[in-house]
TrEMBL record, chains A, B:
<feature type="domain" description="DHHA1">
    <location>
        <begin position="232"/>
        <end position="309"/>
    </location>
</feature>
<dbReference type="InterPro" id="IPR038763">
    <property type="entry name" value="DHH_sf"/>
</dbReference>
<dbReference type="Pfam" id="PF01368">
    <property type="entry name" value="DHH"/>
</dbReference>
<dbReference type="Pfam" id="PF02272">
    <property type="entry name" value="DHHA1"/>
</dbReference>
<dbReference type="GO" id="GO:0003676">
    <property type="term" value="F:nucleic acid binding"/>
</dbReference>
<feature type="domain" description="DDH">
    <location>
        <begin position="17"/>
        <end position="157"/>
    </location>
</feature>
<dbReference type="InterPro" id="IPR003156">
    <property type="entry name" value="DHHA1_dom"/>
</dbReference>
<dbReference type="InterPro" id="IPR001667">
    <property type="entry name" value="DDH_dom"/>
</dbReference>
<protein>
    <submittedName>
        <fullName>Bifunctional oligoribonuclease/PAP phosphatase NrnA</fullName>
    </submittedName>
</protein>
<dbReference type="InterPro" id="IPR051319">
    <property type="entry name" value="Oligoribo/pAp-PDE_c-di-AMP_PDE"/>
</dbReference>
Length: 314, 314
């Protein structure tokens, strides 16, 4: 059942030992929400442990508490512990951290696909980020925001709305961010750390940008992550699509990535066209403007199949 | 003299014919401020002309009024016209538009270097953007924001604070942006148009990123715009420095650009070091974290001279 703000506060206050967790592949919203919550709860005198079943990107280590995040197998809990699941839609999203939830579970989340799985929940799909929800809750509880809490929550919000560029940015999103800057958040420090890239990553970007192909009179842009290109980029290729998505005149951007000789992973983004429909043809799916599928064909052939389908929906 | 908000309103209401202008090389803040002001004043029944002594980047043309901006020589004024100078510190910043100022001049600006030149002025150095000032003024006047005014002002604010990433982003900056989104501004539409790049620009970026050099154990990053590289990039190379400034471990980023066989233009950015001091050695200057100079030496030699000075201040 969906709690009120005051009910959430009461649940947290009634537990002395709390484990905080979030989804695997934790992003800025997950990490920022965890660390702000940890700091506030520790200030109340609670015993708090933050556990995430994944590596923590070192770009988050400018937040002092980030290095203390543990793996679930390093943590012991019992049924007296409250488990707070932040920014995750279900227990299947938190990996091995689900084993720590021996007692009651509170879920705070903003995803529309939330599975409503917890004993108590506070799900706000009108918010762009879990950090936006937490900022409102903490303000409602008249909590004091330290500068480090404010930085963590500013990162949380900014990450999930693309620094106030995405369509999920509302007046409320910006007002919560305003409150954080007034509490000591430093947008330049947060952005500096989020944007830091290694020289190797920039050199990989240079190589990737040499492989852009346009189709359909420039309305479709494609990047092919061949085994050769993957040697530069490594396996994490998800962010490159943004470079081709923003090319003037391009409506649909897609990437094809080598998985095996007869297996190609496809990601699609669009400004207008329904790419969910295209992904569905190949047994994939997603949203109208962001979808993906896996094609049982070699990379070059898969690319041609996708272009053909895309030109049908144009 | 610095007017009050209500005095600014009265000055605008007392004039029936108004020419709006802004600095040359108009950026998002200048253009967004001009177009929002134009729309509001036309709504009051004024005769309004917007004149800028420069080309208007076509990325601004998603704002309906942007294509109507004229060159000063296409405009006729007389002493009865009010000239409103937006986002400019002095008459020397508006190029040939100064010839249109035959009557009174009102200046609305946020730059600390403002020359206090106008008959009336409203200078707010606490604001990150002229668009932030105008949003506050229009809200104070209970003006109605149309969605296109809101988009123009959101662009104005977001441009000058790097989409809420720069240290000039305050709670007030974000609150004004919130008000605009609630009035119909579309952050995704604004950002999509500001970020649109041609394929040629991305290919130029790819080439530029192949030329990064690091010095001083990776704390200094450099890009050299040789005549060969300038064939890819064209003369507008100002934005590339952001890519090397954000490399992990880099404190100072600088670019050297070929001007002539014995003339090299240098731009410096830093996170901590005082680059103004380094630029001063060569007769240049600027701010602690952003400065520039021109060195009377060939590019390669100028680069070595700058590195040598930089390693002294490290």
């Amino acid at each position: 059942m969906n709690c009120s703000s005051q009910e959430v506060r009461r649940i947290l206050e009634q537990h002395d030992r709390i484990v905080l967790t979030a989804h695997v592949s934790p992003d800025g919203d997950a990490i920022g929400s965890l660390l702000a919550m940890q700091e506030w709860l520790e200030g109340l005198g609670k015993e708090v442990v933050v556990a995430v079943d994944d590596d923590i990107d070192d770009k988050f280590f400018f937040l002092p508490l980030a290095e203390q995040i543990r793996r679930p197998d390093q943590v012991q809990t019992d049924a007296s512990w409250l488990t707070v699941v932040l920014d995750a839609t279900g227990m299947d999203r938190i990996g091995a951290a689900d084993a720590l939830a021996k007692g009651k579970v509170l879920n705070i989340d903003h995803h529309i696909s939330n599975l409503h799985f917890a004993d108590w929940e506070y799900v706000r799909t009108d918010c762009a980020a879990t950090g936006e929800i937490l900022t409102e809750l903490l303000a409602d509880w008249q909590a004091e925001f330290s500068p480090s809490m404010a930085n963590a929550l500013y990162m949380a919000i900014a990450t999930d709305c693309g620094f106030f560029k995405f369509s999920n940015t509302t007046g409320h999103t910006l007002r919560m961010a305003a409150l954080l800057v007034e509490a000591g958040a430093q947008p330049n420090v947060v952005s500096e750390h989020l944007e830091a890239r290694s020289l190797a990553k920039l050199q990989a970007l240079s190589e990737v940008l040499r492989h852009i192909e346009l189709f359909g009179e420039g309305q479709v842009a494609c990047l092919s992550f061949t085994p050769e290109l993957l040697q530069y980029t490594g396996e994490h290729t998800g962010s490159y699509i943004d470079y081709i998505r923003t090319i003037q005149g391009v409506d649909v951007a897609f990437t094809v990535k080598y998985v095996g000789p007869e297996e190609t992973r496809v990601s699609l983004r669009s400004k207008r066209a329904d790419v969910n429909a295209v992904a569905s043809v190949f047994g994939g799916g997603g949203h109208v403007r962001a979808a993906g599928c896996t094609v049982a064909a070699p990379l070059e052939e898969a690319k041609k199949m996708i272009v053909k389908e895309l030109l049908k929906v144009k």
